[in-house]
């Protein structure tokens, strides 16, 4: 087409200098000859329009490419400044649950945009993290572990406090979770416990050592009979309810007499291993107390919870917390290994990048090949 246009253009320039009378005498078509400039102008205008359209398309594509690269680099640097890792799903432009084939397609598109040969040093920075994100999300086990971390948050991984206390926040805004945030559970009884070799300890048999005394403060009416009968073991709390002050500070017979004086049967013998969770739940989880006058009048029963049932829920909560803690620790170990691998990869790629720049300068100066 170009050669044809050039030939026609040459012919027109020749014809333009020939007088019209000669062209007519020679039999040339005057109307056709005079139409050629308009045809050529139309062709040239169309060609310019096509070139302008292609230029705008390339510019738009380039702008989109720059936006993608800028977003990836900004995400990486923001996460680094915050002392955390970037969101792999956001980096690859996919959602949780995206099919692996779509993840691969998105990764390839972004890898082309961020290739160091195209984007320079920023592309190198982006490619390192993109490769890690792709390797993580394409592996079923790593993707599942990463989703666990992403679901339960990253507080426990970033040195923002004790990992276990952060897990309490993760497990929901429940009465147990709120109590654990206020006062961590230590696993030790809240009443005073002295060793069997202590002079104040009145334990005489192994059977006695295997049990402890506990007051259900929710059902206590504050009659003070147990306190008056055995003040060494029982005390009255601020709300006027009885509470065990110390275990086995008197003999079993004296404790049993105090238990028998209770008019509402709120004092119980419990296995020793259940004492710590029962006391924690009673003092830190079930903190609401129904007024004694309401209890005596038979009202407010709907507001009273079963302390023993709540303790079973508390123990189940702790079991789930331990499982999640193990998952968190496993994920933390994986992240540490991946961080070391990423740093080594970045070091190697930086060396390669520096070497390529040196080689390019040598070729440009004609000192190397």
Oligomer: single chain
Shape: elongated
* Helicity, as a percent range: 55-70%
Q: End-to-end span in angstroms?
A: 40 Å
Question: Overall pLDDT, averaged?
Answer: 77
Poorly predicted parts: 17-34, 59-63, 153-166
- Structural classification: mainly alpha
What is this structure's SSE topology?
Blueprint: H1 2-17, H2 20-25, H3 30-81, H4 88-92, H5 100-114, H6 116-138, H7 140-152, H8 163-170, H9 175-182, H10 206-209, E1 211-215, H11 225-229, E2 234-236, E3 242-244, H12 252-260, E4 267-271, H13 272-285, H14 292-296, H15 307-365
Antiparallel strand pairs: 1-4, 2-3
Gist of the model:
With 369 residues, the protein is mainly alpha-helical.
Walk me through what this model shows.
With 369 residues, the chain is mainly alpha-helical. Helices cover 66% and strands 4% of the residues. It is built from 15 helices and 4 strands. The protein has helices at 2-17, 20-25, 30-81, 88-92, 100-114, 116-138, 140-152, 163-170, 175-182, 206-209, 225-229, 252-260, 272-285, 292-296, 307-365; strands at 211-215, 234-236, 242-244, 267-271. The strands form 2 sheets. It has a two-stranded antiparallel ribbon with strand order 1-4. The chain has a two-stranded antiparallel sheet with strand order 2-3. α1 (2-17) packs across α3 (30-81) and α6 (116-138) packs antiparallel against α15. The radius of gyration is 41 Å and the shape is elongated. The two termini are 40 Å apart. Mean pLDDT is 77; it is low at 17-34, 59-63 and 153-166.
């Amino acid at each position: 087409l170009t050669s044809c246009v050039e030939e026609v253009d040459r012919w027109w320039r020749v014809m333009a200098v020939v007088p019209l009378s000669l062209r007519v005498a020679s039999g040339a078509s005057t109307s056709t000859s005079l139409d050629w400039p308009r045809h050529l102008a139309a062709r040239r205008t169309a060609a310019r329009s096509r070139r302008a359209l292609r230029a705008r398309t390339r510019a738009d594509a380039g702008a989109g490419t720059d936006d993608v690269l800028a977003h990836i680099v900004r995400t990486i640097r923001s996460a680094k400044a915050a002392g955390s890792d970037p969101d792999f799903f956001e980096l690859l432009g996919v959602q949780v649950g995206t099919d692996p084939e779509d993840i691969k397609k998105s990764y390839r598109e972004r890898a082309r945009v961020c290739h160091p040969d195209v984007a320079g040093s920023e592309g190198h920075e982006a490619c390192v993290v993109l490769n890690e994100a792709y390797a993580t999300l394409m592996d079923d086990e790593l993707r599942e572990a990463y989703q666990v971390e992403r679901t339960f948050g990253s507080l426990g991984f970033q040195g923002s406090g004790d990992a276990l206390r952060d897990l309490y926040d993760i497990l929901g805004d429940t009465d147990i979770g709120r109590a654990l945030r206020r006062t961590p559970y230590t696993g030790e009884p809240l009443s005073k416990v002295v060793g069997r070799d202590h002079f104040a300890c009145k334990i005489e048999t192994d059977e006695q050592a295997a049990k402890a005394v506990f007051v259900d403060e929710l059902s206590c009416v504050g009659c003070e009979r147990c306190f008056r009968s055995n003040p060494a073991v029982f005390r009255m709390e601020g709300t006027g309810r009885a509470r065990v002050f110390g275990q086995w500070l008197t003999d079993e017979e004296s404790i049993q007499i105090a238990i028998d004086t209770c008019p509402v049967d709120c004092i119980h013998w419990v296995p020793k291993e259940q004492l710590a969770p029962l006391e924690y739940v009673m003092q830190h989880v079930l903190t609401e107390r129904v007024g004694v006058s309401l209890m005596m009048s038979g009202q407010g029963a709907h507001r009273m919870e079963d302390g023993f049932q709540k303790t079973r829920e508390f123990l189940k909560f702790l079991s789930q917390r331990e499982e999640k803690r193990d998952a968190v620790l496993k994920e933390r170990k994986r992240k540490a290994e991946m961080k070391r691998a990423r740093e080594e990869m970045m070091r190697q790629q930086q060396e390669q990048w520096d070497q390529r720049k040196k080689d390019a300068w040598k070729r440009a100066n004609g000192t190397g090949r």
